[in-house]
Amino acid sequence: MLLLLVWSVGCSGPDNPRQAATVPVYFATTRAVIENPRSPDAAFGPEASNPQIVRYGLATVEIGPGKTRIASYDPPLAGNPGLLPGRFDTEVRNQISSAHPLIVYIHGFNNTFATAVHRAAVFAHELQPDAAARPAIYSWASASKALAYLKDEETALLNQENIRRFLTNLHHDIGLHRDDVTTPAVLIGHSLGARAVTYALRDISLIRAGQINPRQPMFAHLILLEPDVNRLYFRQNIVRARALCGHVTVYASSRDHALGLSSFLHDHARLGELSNGGLAEKIDVIDASAVRSDLFGHSYDRPVLFEDIRALIRGKNTSERENHTLEKGRDGGVYRLLATPRA
Fold first, then answer.
1. How far apart are the first and last CA of the chain?
2. Residue 242 domain flag
3. Has residue 343 been placed in a domain?
4. What is the pLDDT of residue 165?
5. Which domain holds residue 301?
6. Whose CA is closest to 170, among 56, 261, 253?
7. 3-state DSSP helix/strand/coil percent for the chain, to nearest 5?
8. CATH assignment at residue 260
9. Of 66, 213, 269, 274, which residue has the fewest beta carbons closer than 10 angstroms?
10. Contacting residues for 128 by C-beta, under 8 A, at least 6 apart
């Protein structure tokens, strides 16, 4: 019980950024709207209004060293269904390019809607000027409770089809319904959200069987942070992730006790626990064990992580990032994320 309570701290939210900024965040969610919320942060609840109905909108997030909060929604939530999918896709498409890819964030266990929006805003802000100014999230209805891990697992699974459609629509609409283009997007799945996005990509690959061109992937990057994913399952389906995403990066840690607990509960090792050696060509496993983390080792959003992702977006491979954000491991296999960036 105590471990689960500590785990909830590790999954609760992002670090605040070093500088203040206002970041609009596009969102898609099945969460129910709360009537007369105490603040914009509490406008969406832990339950789904209808698991098959996805609401689209834009949240304005104020981030800063002291506090991060949602300031407003566009359009306002009261009595308004939100953005129409077509307008949502058009607005997203108009602000991204290969030089400024879209950050697409899918959160994990015990996350409120506000926490997910906050973290996406921090990522987009910290990755400037190498990412689109406005990120996008898909927020499934996490129960946002420390002892609701099993319920969150089931809810994430129920959102697998919605996430598949969300990603497919992003690709088709941004690519103007062409399958021979790569959408400039960086998919980021955190913890249990990494499992949800991995499953959704697997479904996309099965539906598009025989139509996938590995030389023209759907998305530019897939980044899995502390992924709560069965390691063997990922190995068995690794070819699908490689075919759909231009490059796949896994950030793992030998100090991630939250994933150690997940391994114990499932009796199967997690992808986010550090393993020896890489997984495959075009898939990098980065050892983030040296980076300062939360109490349970399950969140290491630090300047060195953002700097490494920024270099990744710029097209630098692991060897080109060596001695700046990375160093070679003692065994010569897995690269290690430095505690702080080097000049």
1. 44
2. yes
3. no
4. 93
5. 2-337
6. 56
7. 35, 25, 40
8. 3.40.50
9. 66
10. none
pTM of the model: 0.91
Residue 165 covered by a domain: yes
C-alpha torsion sign, points 220, 279, 229, 244: positive
**Counting beta carbons within 10 angstroms of the beta carbon of residue 18, is it exposed (0 to 12), middle (13 to 18) or buried (19 or more)?**
exposed
DSSP per position, 196-264: HHHHHHHHHHHHTTTT--TTS-SEEEEEEES--SBHHHHHHTHHHHHHHEEEEEEEEBTT-HHHHHHHH
Best mean pLDDT range from 177-181, 213-217, 257-261, 301-305: 301-305
Q: Which residues of 49-70 are buried (b: 16+ CB within 10 A; e: fewer)?
A: eeeeebbbbbbbbbbeeeebeb
Q: How do residues 87-109 score in pLDDT, each as one tens digit?
A: 888 888 889 999 999 999 999 99
Residue carrying structure tokens 């990412």: 131
Q: Residue 138: in which H helix or E strand, if any?
A: strand 136-139
SS3 69: strand
Nearest one of 205, 206, 168, 207 to 187, comparing CA atoms = 168
DSSP string covering 19-37, please?
Answer: S-EEEEEEEEE-EEEPSS-
- Which amino acid is located at 76 in the chain? P
DSSP assignment of 33-66: EPSS-SSGGGSEEEEES-TT--EEEEEEEEE-SS
Is residue 270 within 8 A of residue 230, CB to CB? The reply is: yes
What's the structural domain count of the chain?
1
Residue found by looking up tokens 């990522």 in the block: 123
Torsion of CA 185, 160, 204, 258, to 10 degrees: 60
